[in-house]
Amino acid sequence: MAFNREFEINESQLEEFLANATERVRTSENVDLLSDLNKLFKKNVPLTVRKYVIAYLLKEALKHYHPFNNRRDRFERNERFDRNERNNRNRQERKDFRQERAERAERTEAPAETTEAAATEEERPRHPRVEIPEDQATSIFISIGKNRRVYPRDLVGILIAIAGIDRERIGDIKVLANYSFVQLYTEDAQTAIDKLNGYDYRGRKLAVSYSRQKSDAEGEAAPAAEAETAESQTEYSAEQAEMAAEDAAAYAAAEKAAADKEPFGV
User: Fold this and answer.
1) Which of 47, 112, 115, 254 has the fewest CB atoms lying closer than 10 Å?
2) Model-level pTM?
3) Could you tell me the mean pLDDT of each successive run of 10 residues in the chain, 266 residues long?
């Protein structure tokens, strides 16, 4: 039978279309929806012409089917997806690396810098250093140090509050493990000794005296000063011996902190 074809059948295209449709039905299409459409198809299309209606629908679908473009679109979509995945993965890896590096820096460099800064802050007086002329200066001995978590600012505090000495008249301060030395104007030294010797500070009585014998220019007063110093430091030594067991661990820790330039007790 002769008739004019308005549609040329391309078997290769038809095979690819049907293969693609079959694959989508098996993998991605909503089977329930397709089942409902099939029921409606059977309800509305008589059995005698169903195969022709199916062929008609297939013909109309092939008019809008471009296999090359579809493959290219799928390839481009897959390529974009893969590229985005790679970019996201690279960004996450860079983020994880930066975070790990920052955490490693906090565990190593940051604590060391913080500790050193804290040590410097603890050891340094908060006020400008007072320069006392050597011929006007006298050093006193105070029987407390780093083992009791004492720093220069603490000694300045008790000299001001208890001994009544102005901050501008307090010179160099050296805090060691078990005792300290404070430089004062000579006329203030005896006042500081009188006020602080025997003073109860942080649970223990202070032993305070001249740190060395006064000059020979003081004549007969020198032996008395020497005896007073010896007596005060002997009293302190006896007290220290009684507390040796308690202070042993603290002393070792303080000495190590001083060697490492770290503040004790922080």
Assistant:
1) 47
2) 0.37
3) 62 86 85 87 90 88 67 62 79 82 69 51 62 93 91 93 93 92 95 94 91 48 46 53 56 64 50
Q: Outline where DSSP puts E strands in the chain.
A: 137-142, 170-175, 180-185, 200-201, 204-205, 208-210
CB 111 within 8 A of CB 158: no
Judge contact between 204 and 170, C-beta under 8 A. no
Contact between 258 and 177 under an 8 Å Cβ cutoff? The reply is yes
Query: Side chain identity at 266, as an amino acid letter?
Result: V
The answer to whether 100 and 148 have CB atoms below 8 angstroms apart is no
Strands 208-210 and 180-185: unpaired
Cα 161 to Cα 203: distance, rounded to the nearest angstrom = 18
Contact 177, 147 (CB under 8 A): yes
Tokens standing for residue 122: 């603890």
| Structural Rg of the chain based on CA atoms | 47
Helix, strand counts (H, E) of the chain: 9, 6
